[in-house]
Every structure is written in C-alpha cells, then in structure tokens.
Amino acid sequence: MIPLLVAGLALWANDVADPATIDKTWRIATGAPFGPMAILDLNGMNTNYNILKEIPGELTQKIAEKLKTELIDKGKLGQQSGEGFYKYPDPEWQSKDFLKA
User: Fold this and answer.
1) 101 Cα distance to chain centroid
2) 3-state secondary structure at position 78
3) DSSP 8-state code for residue 91
4) Exposed / middle / buried, residue 63 (Cβ in 10 Å: 0-12, 13-18, 19+)
5) 10-residue block means of pLDDT along the chain (101 residues)?
C-alpha cells in the first residue's frame, strides 16, 4: 500500500495534480471507495510524515518536507484535526457529484 500512496503523493508534491483530481482518477480507474489522499487523511499527517522520513530517497524526503510545511505546520493533520487534504466531517470526495465528469 505504501508505494501506491507514495505515487499519489508524488503527483501532489510535483504539482502534477491536486488531491481531488488524484483521488477522483484513482477511484474511477480502480473502483476503490477511497483515493490515496483520503487514505492519507485517515492515517494522519504525522504518521505519514514519520513513515516517509524513514524511507531513503530524494522523492520521499521531498514529499515529507512538503507534508510538513503545507499541512502539519498549519495544523492540517487529517481527519483528526478536521482538515488535511480535505475538510471534515464532509469532505468533497464523499459527495455524490465527486465522480461526475
């Protein structure tokens, strides 16, 4: 699961796509109920950050730093704080219209 989550994070960290687009594409392509960014919100940003810091490599360290500066340092810790990549309790990915083109 970690390589798949890192792939989603890499798209975000490299400014290829925003979290909603990443999740929407993932869910349409796989039929999964959650996309990687929603899963990461559930995990909690501190957990994600701590795991990434232990994986050697330029990409994982870049992602870890972006998680820290753009989310953790701003108190956006995921579902536990009410905001991460999405705002809770009603994140946009749960909307009936989210998967519509």
Assistant:
1) 21
2) strand
3) -
4) buried
5) 93 97 94 94 97 95 97 97 95 83 63
CA separation, residue 12 to residues 63, 65, 85, 87, 98 (Å): 9, 12, 10, 17, 18
Identify residue 51 by its one-letter amino acid code.
I
Cα–Cα distances (Å) from 20 to 6, 10, 11, 38, 60, in that order, read 16, 14, 11, 9, 21
pTM over 0.85: yes
Q: Give the DSSP per-residue string, 54-77.
A: TS-SHHHHHHHHHHHHHTGGGT--
- Lookup: tokens for 51: 């795991």
